[in-house]
């Protein structure tokens, strides 16, 4: 009998937010999906997909996250895939709005959306083969909080007990987070050992428990929720100067920039090394806060990416930290630079 695994699978972890990201793919067609990707891990995920030879077709979020910013929009721009979230979320940028029972195919595999609201009103779990990806609805020996983002303990109770606990006991449970070093459980284990919601728990006692938790407000919620409503590239921070400054303007002044002016390429390192605007330095999106002190010292910073989406995100992040020395090529970038035949440095 062959020992070849039935489906390609990787579980990835973001240490800062204790968030799990999942990559699954068909071993024959190489078509793949990614679940709950984190913006700061965009390069990691992009590199792994390339190394494994996976052709991404879908990127999904289990809900509108309050603790981290998604990279759905970035992955769509980079890989030409489709994005999907639960229909009640109302995320306007998503390509597919998932109702309960909606299915997506990748190769010979089927991903089935299971509406599991309660942590938020749009939480969606994903069933693939003998695995269920539960987001923040069901955690290992715990569950998601219900005190913000339209949370409802009674609704979460019904989602877990009637939808998730109805799955076979041997179904593997892969959660959206873990804070105690665990990575996987089973439905059977959670029904027996989950201290918040064992199979014997009553709805009224569960609601009383959840309403008494008094948890602190998520520290990233004010940034994360608006950004995630824009697939991780929301830029509702005012005028981004793209109407008055483009690649033609940059080309005209490029050779005359002073030492306290800099052009920053917000794409990945691989994209940068494949060809960039002459003299530009590489600062991939998601890494900008690491260089905040140095960036403050420049008199003027010109931001660009491939099409303008990532540079807008970097612009929004930096302006929220008080930088006022930025010019963003928000509706143009390397694609237009090449279109005009301007020189490219490698």
Total DSSP helices: 11
* Cα shape: elongated
- Strand arrangement in the largest pleated sheet: 1-2-3-4-5-6
Count of spatially separate domains: 2
| Uncertain residue segments | 234-243
CATH class type of the largest domain: Alpha Beta
* C-alpha Rg (nearest Å): 22 Å
Helix and strand content put the structural class at alpha/beta
Tell me the total number of β-strands. Answer: 18
Order of helices and strands: EEEHEHEEEEEEEEHEEHHHHEHEHEHEH
Distance between the termini: 50 Å
Which whole number gives the mean pLDDT?
90
Major pleated sheet: 6 strands, mixed
Mind telling me the CATH superfamily name of the largest domain? Ribonuclease Z/Hydroxyacylglutathione hydrolase-like
Bin the strand percentage: 15-25%
State the share of residues found in helices, binned by percent: 25-40%
Write down the CATH topology of the largest domain: Metallo-beta-lactamase, Chain A
The CATH architecture term of the largest domain is 4-Layer Sandwich
